[in-house]
Amino acid sequence: MSIDQQQVLLNEAKHAVNEKDYDSAILKYQQVINDQSEEIKLNKKLQFQEISIIELGKIYQLIDKPQDLYNLINDSRNILGNFAKSKTAKIVKTLIENFDQLNSLDLQIKSTKECITWAIESKLIFLKQSLQLKLSELLYKKKNYHEAIKIINDLLREYKKLDDKSSLVEVQLLESKIYNALRNFPKAKAALNSARTSANSIYCPTVLQAELDCQSGILNSEDKDYKTAFSYFYESFEGFNSQDDSRAIIVLKYMLLTKIMLNLIDDVNNILNNKNVLKYKSKDIDAMKSIANAYSNRSLKEFENSLNLYSTELKTDLIIKNHFNALYDNLLEQNLLKIIESYDCVELSYISKIIDLNLQQVEGKLSQMILDKVFYGVLDQGNGWLIIYDEPRKDAAYEASLELIKNLSNVVDLLYEKASLLN
């Protein structure tokens, strides 16, 4: 096949894509990829093949064909050895990233592992490292944290030997996210501090800096330092927004979360009226606004209705879910205290009716509050009563006596030591 013929095929394939005739486009791109003729120069042939492979990957992504994309990656390895290492890395990474928009995480992980094995066999070290970072990110999404952290530890050793600061930032940031998911906050903070240190010594792209700020905000939120968290989330939002990155709306939700946790509902409305935020109006933002209003009204029923109505928007993100669970518990606690404050003894069924929750939930929460010493009382489950006691007074004389005895004991010990020296 001549250069002109291949060029015609590529043009026809592009036109077919524009016309949404994807089957025809796929056939034409495959013809270019599988062409075995030696009528044209190798460089030109490789250029056409590169274009065809990448465009074919885009089509499979567009028409939601993950299995065909997986097959394309496998078949492409037969000709990728003819490309320069940098071109090979670019093509493989592009094809693997095409899976990101498809609901096929397991297939993407399988393909990435196979590509890593192939990269090792072909001695493509930098491609192997890049794919390992991608694999650990995919395992993190799949919540396979322990396997992901093993890969991260190997990558950290390799990148530290190479003194590759830009790659170190990405690896350490992902390490922080994984440890945060494992609820190991000291290690998550240490990894984030290392990532920030590495980022300070190089030029850090805007999006990567926004990711670092977002992770800082998340860790500060876990410490319940919501004011500091908001400032980090704001910086992160500005970064993502300036690059038209889709993650801006996620960070915007985190910004609203911090204001809700601080019970600054007016600030929530002010943020939503900001001109940079108006374009992000969606069901996600409506969900946050609904929760803010429910919390402001101290209405447990409204809060529950919001959680049920916007279940997808509020429960798929673990960070928002965890904080709203704490918020719900706090609101439930306040409502229960308000109901029982004027009683010495009250029926559990009455509390359940007033707060509009089933009896088992009410019993469980009240027993937890008693154990946490939120109030003093006892559950009489035989009669179905809650008996509330006054807060016991601390006897100051008892504490003072213990302190006096402790001091006297120390004096006697010192006198005994000195007496031993004299002997």
Automatic annotation (TrEMBL):
GO terms for cellular component: proteasome regulatory particle, lid subcomplex. Residues 225-393 form the PCI domain. The keyword Repeat does not apply. Gene3D superfamilies: 1.25.40.570. Keywords: Proteasome. SMART domains: PAM (SM00753), PINT (SM00088). Pfam families: PCI, RPN6_C_helix, RPN6_N. The keyword Magnesium does not apply. InterPro entries: 26S_Proteasome/COP9_Components, PCI_dom, Rpn6_C_helix, Rpn6_N, TPR-like_helical_dom_sf, WH_DNA-bd_sf. Belongs to the proteasome subunit S9 family. PANTHER family: 26S PROTEASOME NON-ATPASE REGULATORY SUBUNIT 11/COP9 SIGNALOSOME COMPLEX SUBUNIT 2. This is PCI domain-containing protein. It comes from Candida verbasci.
